[in-house]
TrEMBL record:
Belongs to the precorrin methyltransferase family. Pathway: Cofactor biosynthesis; adenosylcobalamin biosynthesis. This is Precorrin-2 C(20)-methyltransferase. Residues 3-214 form the Tetrapyrrole methylase domain.
Length: 244
C-alpha cells in the first residue's frame, strides 16, 4: 500500500520535533517539503534536513501564501499533487513523508495535497503525525499560559477579517492570532481599541535565527511584521486559580 504521512515539524526549532516525527523523517523513502517558487530554503525543509539526508528530501513548489491569485494557487496544488503521485508510480508501496510547519491539522496545506494525491493514485493510506504549533512555542518562550481554568481559546487567522477578531477580544476569550504579518498595524489597532494590548505577547520567526519575542505593546504601531508572526492575547487574570 502507498503511504503518505503528513508530519508536523514544529515552528522552526529542530529540538521541537517529536520523536515519532524524527523517526519517520529518518526512515521514509522520500521526504517532500513545500517550498515557494523563490528558490529559498523552505521553513519545513530547514527542519526536515536535521533528520533526513538531503538526497531523500524532494522539494515541491507550493503556493504557500498566494491568497490573491486563486487560479495560480489551484494550479500549484495540482502540480504539487501530480509530483507526489509520480513518485508513488515509480515507488509502489513506498512511504512518503510530507513535512509541514507546526501541526499538519492546523492551517496546513497538507490536507489539500493528500486529497488530490489520493484522487490521482487511487490506493493511498494517509496518516498524520502531530507537531508543536507556533502558539504553543510562543506560550512557552514568553511564559504565557494559553488558557487556565474555565477560560476559552479562540484561534484566529487575521485573514478572516478584523471584525471577528474584535468580537473574540470583546468576549474576553484568550485569543491567538495567526497570519497577520502584513496586517500588524491593523491588528495592533484592534487590540488597543478593545483594551487588550497590555498583556498581549508577540513572537516572530520562533525557533529561527531572526526570532523576536516581546510584549505587543512594544511594537511599532505602523510597521508590518513578517509572515511568521503569532500573537497571544491572554484574558485578564486575577492570580492563582482565579479562572477555576
Ligand atoms: C499556514 S499557518 C501554519 C500554522 C502551523 N501549521 C501551526 O501549527 O502552527 C502559518 C502561520 O503560523 C504561524 N507561525 C508558524 N510558524 C511560526 C514561527 N516560526 N514563528 C511565528 N509564527 C509562526 C504564523 O502566524 C503564520 O502566519
Amino acid at each position: 500500500m502507498n503511504t503518505l504521512v503528513g508530519v508536523g515539524v514544529g515552528p522552526g526549532d529542530p529540538d521541537l520535533v517529536t520523536v515519532k516525527a524524527a523517526n519517520l523523517l529518518a526512515k521514509a523513502d522520500v521526504v517532500f517539503v513545500p517550498v515557494a517558487d523563490s528558490g529559498e530554503t523552505g521553513r519545513a525543509e530547514q527542519t526536515a534536513l536535521f533528520y533526513a539526508e538531503a538526497w531523500r528530501v524532494e522539494r515541491v513548489v507550493f503556493a504557500l501564501h498566494d491568497r490573491e491569485h486563486t487560479a495560480r494557487r489551484e494550479h500549484a496544488w495540482d502540480a504539487a499533487a501530480a509530483q507526489v503521485a509520480r513518485w508513488f508510480a515509480a515507488h509502489p508501496d513506498g512511504t512518503a513523508a510530507f513535512a509541514t510547519i507546526g501541526d499538519p491539522c492546523v492551517y496546513s496545506t497538507f490536507t489539500y495535497l493528500a486529497a488530490t494525491v489520493r484522487d490521482l493514485v487511487g490506493e493511498l493510506d494517509v496518516q498524520l503525525i502531530p507537531g508543536i504549533t507556533a502558539m504553543q512555542d510562543l506560550a512557552a518562550r514568553s511564559g504565557t499560559p494559553l488558557v487556565e481554568g474555565r477560560e476559552t481559546l479562540s484561534l484566529f487567522p487575521m485573514t478572516a477579517g478584523a471584525d471577528r477578531f474584535r468580537e473574540a477580544l470583546n468576549r474576553g476569550d484568550a485569543v491567538v492570532a495567526y497570519k497577520f504579518g502584513r496586517m500588524l498595524p491593523e491588528t495592533l489597532a484592534v487590540l488597543r481599541e478593545t483594551g487588550r494590548l497590555d498583556g498581549a505577547v508577540y513572537g516572530a520567526g520562533l525557533g529561527l535565527v531572526e526570532e523576536d519575542v516581546r510584549p505587543a505593546a512594544d511594537l511599532d504601531p505602523d510597521t508590518p511584521g513578517p509572515y511568521l508572526s503569532t500573537l497571544i492575547v491572554p484574558p485578564a487574570r486575577t492570580g492563582r486559580g482565579g479562572a477555576l
